[in-house]
Amino acid sequence: MEIILTQENILYYKTFIKDLKKIDKEDVSIIKSKLDILLKHSDLQNIKALQNYKAASYRLKIGKYRILFLYNKKINKNVFLRIKNRKDLY
After folding, report:
1. Whose CA is closest to 46, among 55, 56, 35?
2. For domain 7-89, which architecture applies?
3. pLDDT digits (tens, 9 = 90+) for 20-45
4. Which phi and psi angles does 44 have, rounded to 5°?
């Protein structure tokens, strides 16, 4: 399945928002700017399908942070579930 990430087809789950609020403001601004660049240029080299991980289907790597997400076919959107520092996630 081809992953298409655009601003219009992303839904931010409440746990993602909670995680984002816990991250240092400086890191949040870096994450937002890198995510904007990624969405504009469709650079998918930082996305990997996850194996044997029940909560999410994919992970997106942005610096030292990982965004876990899945694709919801019913609503045709990518649902961003969590954002965590790599050391806290794995």
Report:
1. 35
2. 2-Layer Sandwich (3.30)
3. 999 999 999 999 998 888 888 766 77
4. -100, 10
